[in-house]
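Assess this one:

_____
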Amino acid sequence: MSAQQLCETLRASRGFAHKRDISDIITALGQALPGGSAALAQAVPVGDDCAAIPDGQGGYLLFAIEGLVEDFILRMPWFAGYCSVMVNVSDIYAMGGRPTAVVNAMWSQGMEPAAQMLKGMARASEVYGVPIVGGHSNNRSERPQLAVSILGRASKLLTSFDARPGDSLIMAVDVRGAYEEPFPYWNASTCAEAERLRGDLELLPQLAEAGLCDAAKDISMAGPVGTAMMLLECSGVGAVIDVDVLPRPPGVALERWLATFPSYGFVLSVRPPHVAEVMMRFASRDLTCAVVGEVTAQRQVHLRQVGSEALLWDFERDAFICEARAPIAMSGATTPQAQQEPASCP
């Protein structure tokens, strides 16, 4: 594919569509709150991997939640349960924190697939050393659903709001693993040693605490490029990304990798003096790491591939996950009455 074809494929992908929904939610919530979107402000604005709440002692309480898509739960309930903990753990580390505990909300029709989801969650809890401390369950649901929430703490944050023009855009991925077919999930976790997995994740808070990096995000369903876009948009910057040098497993086609959700993958925006040290730390743990682009002041993302270059996204013209500039139309309402608040509240 040319760079232009890759851009068109990514813009039409399921991962991009799911992430674009975030903009609608943030915009609608900002419209609904007194004071608008400013009421959503906290230690970091909405749009990051976790909420970060100052703890009054110079650190932060981290709080996040992840939901699993239904088709994944139906076809792979054990792995869905495992991932529900794993992805939350990754969110905490992506913010420079360390996880404390998780809770879950689970719906099922009887104990299947509930039992398999719980076994997967229990295994991930053991592997990552994060206890399951409670939750909510409903075994009389027509459809299985699963969401897991996590708490953690950070002494110094990594955020999606601190990339600067001139930074090097770095990606680090664990390419030791395999796809969980037919899904786009690269599993480098379930067959790895727990000690190694925890040590690999520990790199992120260590980088934050050493002052080597202050902008990062874990690679999600948007894939490596889509995740980089989320970080860049939140920081009010852009980048030129060279997809030919993206860390990826041998033999995996570039088009598939761009839509992949790896069990261990992070995008970092790093000041030039710290690039060599950051890359050395990932390499010391046999994690594949590369400089994949440079952060620019122009709020556009361009892809470079085999000598060609194309515009993937212009944040000035179209929001990706951030608040839309123009009010959005309320969906799902058939009459003006359906959009109104209740006449009275109990």
In short: Residues 238 and 298 are 6 Å apart (CA to CA). The two ends are 58 Å apart (CA to CA).
